[in-house]
Design goal:
125 residues, globular
Length: 125
């Protein structure tokens, strides 16, 4: 009985790890590859969203709206940005996959992960 539980546990772990790998690949293919090719600073875009919307839920909703209908009025970028970079094309991606890609994007550039309190720094040393 114990062996069966271990086997099922390992199988579910591998399946979960595979899904996470696909999410990373989806983020790279759908978002970051274009940002890198056009040299669009993703960290700067994340900061602009954070300053305007302040929470992950509001940032995700705003990004989703823009990705579903890429128009200047839905963008957080200033007008001169579009003279240097082309307007994004609508992506043929399922809503569920787009939400996952946006969440991965927000996780990747999350500023809160980089913040460390002085007390925590001292405890680590």
């Amino acid at each position: 009985m114990g062996k069966i539980i271990w086997i099922i546990g390992f199988m579910s772990l591998f399946l979960y790890a595979g899904d996470r790998g696909n999410e990373k690949g989806m983020l790279q293919a759908n978002c970051l590859s274009c940002h890198q090719k056009q040299q669009i600073p993703s960290a700067l875009i994340y900061k602009r969203y954070l300053m305007k919307y302040s929470t992950d839920a509001r940032m995700e909703a705003a990004m989703f709206t823009y990705m579903k209908s890429p128009k200047k009025e839905f963008s957080i970028m200033p007008a001169p940005f579009f003279s240097k970079f082309s307007m994004k094309q609508k992506m043929p991606i399922k809503d569920e996959d787009l939400h996952r890609s946006i969440k991965r994007y927000l996780e990747k550039f999350d500023m809160k992960k980089k913040l460390v309190l002085e007390k925590e720094k001292q405890g680590a040393q």
